[in-house]
Structure formats: C-alpha cells, structure tokens
Specification:
Structural class of chain A: mainly beta
Distance between the termini of chain A: 22 Å
Order of helices and strands of chain A: EHEEEEEEEEEEEE
Low-confidence stretches of chain A: 1-11, 26-35
Structural class of chain B: mainly beta
Shape of chain B: elongated
Helix content of chain A: 10-25%
CATH superfamily of the largest domain in chain B: Immunoglobulins
Low-confidence stretches of chain B: 1-38, 236-242
Largest sheet of chain B: 6 strands, antiparallel
Helix content of chain B: 10-25%
CATH class of the largest domain in chain B: Mainly Beta
Distance between the termini of chain B: 15 Å
Strand content of chain B: 35-45%
Order of helices and strands of chain B: HEEEEEEEEEEEEEHEEEEEEEEEEEE
Number of strands of chain A: 13
Largest sheet of chain A: 6 strands, antiparallel
Radius of gyration of chain A: 20 Å
CATH architecture of the largest domain in chain B: Sandwich
CATH topology of the largest domain in chain B: Immunoglobulin-like
Oligomer: heterodimer
Shape of chain A: flat
Mean pLDDT of chain B: 81
Chain lengths: 174, 368
C-alpha cells in the first residue's frame, strides 16, 4: 500500500471538473479532433531481501510507507492511452527527474520497447551511460550512476487506443 | 655470552599472553573509526516525492502529461556508536585516585534522539573492577577532563543526552583504581549508550540483553515529526562496535641484564687475554619500571673458546655446586653437554635505588 497523492486536487474538485469537462466534450465534440487522453501513474515500492524456505535470498516488493536511509525504492511509471486515437510511434518520451535524496541504482531503468538515456545536468542533455562525463576535481571523467540526475525513456512503438505500457527504475535512499 | 635472546623471548611470550586483552582493545578501536565517519543519511521526516512526465504526439500534434506524485516519508533510525578515544589501554598506578579514559558517542541515526549514557565498571572477567567511577561530559571545550569551576559537566549515570543526527559528544570516565594490584592487572570499562526511545518503549537499557528490540523493530509515531522510529543495526548486541573497551593496566616490568668480564688472570700474573688465561664474569639481573616477575631463569651459553671452571658459580655471593638437580637451595648449575649455565632466580621483585632485589651471578672460565 504505497502512498500515492494526487497533487493539487481533492476528489470533490476532481469530480466537479470531470463533470464540466464532460459537458464541454459533449458540446464541442463535433468540432474537436479525436481526444488525446493519455494517463500516467507513478507508484513506489520498497525492495527488501527475504530468505525463502531454501535459504535463498529473494527480492520482494513491499510498501514504501516506511523508508529509512539505505533502503532501495522501486518506481514504476505506467501509461495508458484512454483516448480514441493512436499516439504517434516514436513520439513518446518519458522523463523522470530522480527523487531528491536518492541515488540511481545502475542498470535498473527498464521499459519494454524503450531506449533509456540519462542526464547528469538536470535534464539539459541526455546520453547513454558511456557518453556521459562529469567534472571531478577539475578533470572530466566518465559519469557514474550516482551522478545521474534524470532518466529518460524513448518509447518506440505507437501507442494505440486502449493500450498501456510501463517503465521502471530503482534508487537507494541516501 | 649471556643468552639474552632466550630470556627476552620468554619474557616477551609471557607479556604477549597478558597483552592479549589489550590488543583486542586496539582492534576494537580501529574498527570503530570508519563507522564514526559515516554520514547518517536523509533526515527523519523528509518526504521523498517522485513525479514523471511524458511528451507525446497524436497526428503530429505534441502534448504533455504529468503523473501523480508519490511520496515516501523517511522514518527515524535509532543508531548510536560509542568509540574509545584511546587506541590502547591506559597505564595507571595502584592505587590511583583518578584514572581517566574518554569515549566518543555519535548519533549515527537520522534524527534528533536522546541517548541514555551509563558507565559500566563491573564487566571484568578475571580483571579488576575500579573501586568507583563517574561520567563527565566534555562541555568546556578544553581537551581532556577538567573538574571544578569552568570544567566539564558531571553526568548523572543513565541521564539522557540529546544529539542531533551525526552529532557526537566526548564523554570522560573518571575512575578510582584500587591499591595492591598485581603487574599486568587489567580492567575493562564501557560506556553504554541506549536510545531513550527504545528504552521507553521496551524498558530495556542494555543492548546485550536478549529482550532488547532487534534491528528493524519499529515504534509507531515515536520518531521525529511523528514518523516511525526504527531500531538501527548498531544496537545489535553482537556487534562489538557498539561498545568500546578501553582498560587500565599496571605498567609492565622490564628486565635489565648486564654481563661484564670483571677480571682476566693470565698464568704470569698479568691480565693478558690468551689461551690458559682465566676470565671472571659477573652478570647482574634486575626488574625495572614496575611490578615483579615470577619464575625468572637465566641461561648463559658459553662459546667454544671458553671452558667453564668447575665450582666457580656463585649466586648473590653464595657458591653453588654445578649440579643442575633442583635439590634444597640448589637453584643453578652447569650443564657440560650443552655448555650452558642455568640459574633459576625464581620470583624477582622490583629493584629499588638501594639495590634490593638485584641478582648477581658470577663464574669463571678458562680461555682455550
């Protein structure tokens, strides 16, 4: 049971808005192009290691309500095309600035059909890990996972109406 | 030539055995340092938000969407590390009114926490316990313990000291050393720091106790800002880093051995060194610095150029026979098979300025 909050709205306001929006849609439908209704949801879980019956260490995802420094947090960003039109292939780019007080865990960014790149300058420039450098003690050196500030996924296929996708990454809480 | 090496070795090995406890102290202290310097992490109560955004296009028309924001709240970890500031045991006298060792207690958790500080004196197995002692908090900014006006602050045993994350405090333990201690007497004392939150929730104030909440135990709303309080790993009883064991030890005795040829007597009445001349040797042995030694034995291997003169051995002015059998007062002799003088000196007390407890062994040999 992760803590998810929708920022800036409460449920009654949301309902009111939705009602107004529906009325607007009904009124304007004929004049509008197909609805562009893509939704995104972020969830977070904590990764723990547990021993199974055979004594093997097993990764388990549990609630991220309680976290302490050193914990591993696993984020999943799901997206869904709720509209009636297909989203253009190659047009989807998902960007996630790393949460504050966390360090990206190398190799954890994933997403079917996506190409992952990273930024070490808060999203100014993105590149593959081997392309990134940082200045350390006046010298330009290859960037480490801990230098990353932002992750970006380029989703290649088209996202047809009714289809979903997701990407994920993990961090360690400093 | 006196077999100084042999003797030094036997003394060294007895010292080694007695120092084993001290070496452990040193090791413990070394292990502590990296732990102390580690930052304690994101502050308790911090919210960790995450929001993703997405750019996409429909029929070439570019659009944006943002996700919801997740928030994880950082709980308070209750962790404390106590380290001895001395790497080795502190040398003391017996008796001694005030012997001081210092500890550094560091809040390695991520919140503001009170730690109850206790001084444990009766943790010795085989060692001596200090007669009494107390804790002082380093508060006057002058290194070391100063008592009286303008000095450091008395700490009531078990009272709470509040530390913010990463903050540390130097705590001095001042103890009274009893009299009549034997050489190498050792004592271990420890500073015990226990989170006041854990103590209040569990009633336990000794991390070594079986009922002490294990790492990962949580206490609802007991952390900073109403967060959960989580028992950290340094409270784990088995981890030696939690306690430091500096100790007190009487200064070790040292042995001084000095061998001289006091006279050379040639057949012609001169002191010429040549075959046939007789050399008179004197060896002086004494215990210096502190304490005493038991079962001391002096061995002197004669080189092939020297032939021991039968019946010439004397210990502290008393002529000894050459027989090695320990009969009666016969404590020494000469073994012709190994060409070795062997003198048992037994328990040797600390030498004083008047020369008491100095042992003198004399013998003569002929140059071949």
């Amino acid at each position: 049971m992760h803590r998810i909050r929708t920022t800036g709205t409460d449920s009654s306001m949301k309902m009111a808005r939705t009602t107004i929006a529906r009325l607007l849609w009904i009124g304007l439908f004929a004049a509008m192009p197909a609805a562009a209704n893509v939704e995104m949801t972020t969830t977070v879980q904590k990764v723990i290691l547990q021993e199974d019956a055979k004594g093997n260490s097993v990764r388990k995802l549990v609630s991220a309500d309680q976290v302490v420094p050193g914990d591993t947090l696993h984020y999943v960003i799901s997206f869904s095309n709720k509209g009636s039109s297909s989203v253009d292939s190659g047009s989807i780019v998902i960007t996630n600035p790393l949460p504050p007080d966390t360090v990206y865990l190398e190799g954890t960014a994933a997403g079917s059909g996506t190409e992952v790149s990273y930024s070490v300058d808060s999203g100014g420039m993105f590149g593959r890990p081997e392309e990134l450098t940082v200045l350390r003690e006046g010298e330009r050196v290859p960037a480490q996972a801990a230098d990353y500030t932002t992750i970006r996924w380029a989703f290649k296929p088209a996202l047809e109406a009714g289809k979903t996708g997701d990407v994920s990454f993990s961090v360690r809480l400093k | 030539m006196a077999d100084v090496e042999n003797m030094a070795e036997s003394i060294a090995s007895s010292t080694k055995r007695r120092m084993a406890g001290v070496c452990f102290l040193l090791l413990t202290a070394l292990l502590l340092n990296p732990v102390c310097s580690e930052a304690s992490g994101t502050a308790a109560g911090t919210l960790i938000p995450n929001t993703a955004s997405m750019q996409f296009a429909i029929d070439g028309l570019s659009k944006n969407v943002r996700s919801n924001t997740t928030e994880s709240r950082v709980d308070e970890v209750l962790d404390v590390v106590v380290a001895a500031e001395q790497a080795e045991a502190v040398a003391i006298d017996s008796p001694m009114e005030t012997a001081v060792v210092s500890f550094l207690a560091t809040n390695t958790g991520n919140g503001v926490e009170g730690y109850r500080l206790f001084l444990d004196l009766n943790i010795n197995e085989g060692g001596f316990d200090p007669s009494s002692g107390g804790l002082w908090l380093e508060t006057n900014g002058v290194p070391g313990l100063q008592t009286g006006a303008g000095g450091d602050s008395v700490h009531v045993d078990g009272a709470v000291v509040n530390l913010i994350a990463d903050q540390n405090i130097t705590v001095h333990a001042a103890v009274v050393i009893p009299g009549a201690l034997a050489a190498y007497a050792e004592s271990l004392i420890r500073l015990r720091a226990v989170s006041a939150t854990i103590n209040a929730a569990s009633g336990v104030n000794d991390p070594d106790a079986a009922e002490f909440p294990p790492p990962g135990s949580t206490f609802t709303a007991a952390g900073d800002g109403g967060t959960y309080a989580v028992v950290g790993s340094t409270h784990q009883a088995e981890q030696p880093v939690f306690f430091a064991f500096p100790g007190f030890r009487i200064d070790a005795p040292t042995v001084a051995l000095d061998k001289v040829a006091v006279a050379v007597r040639a057949a012609d009445g001169t002191d010429a060194v040549r075959p046939g001349s007789i050399v008179d040797y004197r060896m002086r042995v004494e215990v210096r610095d502190a304490g005493s030694l038991s079962g001391m034995r002096l061995k002197d291997l004669l080189p092939p150029e020297l032939e021991y003169i039968a019946g010439s051995l004397a210990i502290n002015g008393t002529v000894e026979d050459d027989d090695l059998e320990p009969l009666g007062t016969d404590v020494g002799g000469y073994d012709p098979h190994t060409a070795t003088l062997d003198v048992g000196l037994g328990d040797v007390a600390l030498a004083d300025a008047a020369g008491t407890a100095v042992h003198v062994v004399t013998f003569s040999a002929t140059i071949r």
